[in-house]
Specification:
Number of helices: 3
CATH superfamily of the largest domain: Glucose Permease (Domain IIA)
Structural class: mainly beta
Oligomer: single chain
Helix content: 10-25%
Radius of gyration: 20 Å
Order of helices and strands: HEEEEEEEEHEEEEEEEEEEEEEH
Bound molecules: zinc ion
Length: 291
């Protein structure tokens, strides 16, 4: 699994050189980050510039900073357009680097389909209404401008974008990064933010926490055994906000960390870089699976 980060950096490197030159002098517009599927681009433009990504207006701080995200399946060329306060237009064409996701085809298995009961279905609908409401938050917090840290260290047991295909039927892709850790392990806020959802027991994701980092960027922690903050709380980068668990539909204790830029799923691993090597070689298998 730890092969992946270096591959990603390579892809990102190629894609970045593929960034097509601006059509006008490009001083005072800066971009950094990985223009790859699941990646984020951070930018700075002169103050009061309007920014449009694929025609969609992007929120810009009063200092001209902005962030935009590329979903798992975004591809090809995207136009990043800038409109100055005097109406001056510029644009850059960004080539979104394609990634190879881990797709596992599993055939000949007996279909053990879980049939949620009517009660379960009601819960599932309620859960998605909560999540939908939290996703609508579009704040002007600027926590997204700071660096992001791993919420905890441990073996990575599931990666962004991977997908299983059972008997030819593709299942929903996995959007988080799974870090195996025993129940009760502290999980820290990867950056500062505000708690926009804290739910003890969702049907699929169990104990679920969502933190808004501002400008459309948010983190979610799934399968928690305990949540130590409540909705509306402000959290600091590095603050212990929850404990790892095995709640919801999982087979073992792990933290599933997901990130969104509005409705686009972002790969947290691209933001924090490779998982540091364990200080001691005690890599016991805690049974975390690709949930
Ligand atoms: Zn997961």
């Amino acid at each position: 699994m730890l092969r992946l980060p270096s591959t990603l950096l390579l892809i990102a490197g190629i894609a970045f050189t593929g960034l097509v030159a601006a059509t006008e002098p490009e001083e005072s517009i800066e971009l950094r980050g990985n223009p790859v599927q699941g990646g984020l681009l951070f930018g700075t433009a002169p103050a009061q510039t309007h920014v449009f990504w694929g025609g969609r207006p992007v929120r810009v701080t009063e200092n001209g900073e902005f962030v935009l995200g590329m979903g798992r399946d975004n591809k090809g060329l995207m136009v990043l357009r800038f409109e100055g306060p005097d109406g001056e237009q510029r644009q850059r064409v960004v080539e979104i680097g394609k990634r190879d996701y881990d797709i596992q085809s599993i055939s000949g298995i007996s279909s053990k389909i879980m049939n949620p009961s009517e009660d379960d279905l009601q819960r599932i609908r309620r859960d998605s209404a909560y999540i939908g409401k939290a996703r609508k938050v579009d704040s002007s917090r600027t926590d997204f401008l700071t660096a992001f840290d791993w919420p905890l260290y441990g073996p990575i047991t599931g990666v962004f974008g991977s997908q299983r295909v059972y008997n030819g039927v593709p299942k929903r892709p996995h959007f988080g990064v799974d870090i195996a850790a025993p129940t009760g392990t502290a999980a820290r806020a990867p950056a500062g933010g505000k708690v926009i959802l804290a739910h003890d027991d969702m049907f699929y994701s169990g104990g679920t926490l969502m933190i808004d980092h501002g400008y459309g960027l948010s983190s979610s922690f799934l399968h928690l055994s305990r949540i130590l903050v409540k909705e509306g709380d402000e959290v600091r980068r590095g603050q212990v906000v929850a404990e790892v668990g095995a709640t919801g539909r999982v087979t073992g204790a792990h933290l599933d960390w997901r990130m969104n830029w509005y409705d686009q799923r972002i790969d947290p691993q691209l933001l924090v870089g490779p998982m540091p090597a364990p200080a001691d070689e005690e890599q016991t298998n805690t049974g975390g699976m690709n949930d």
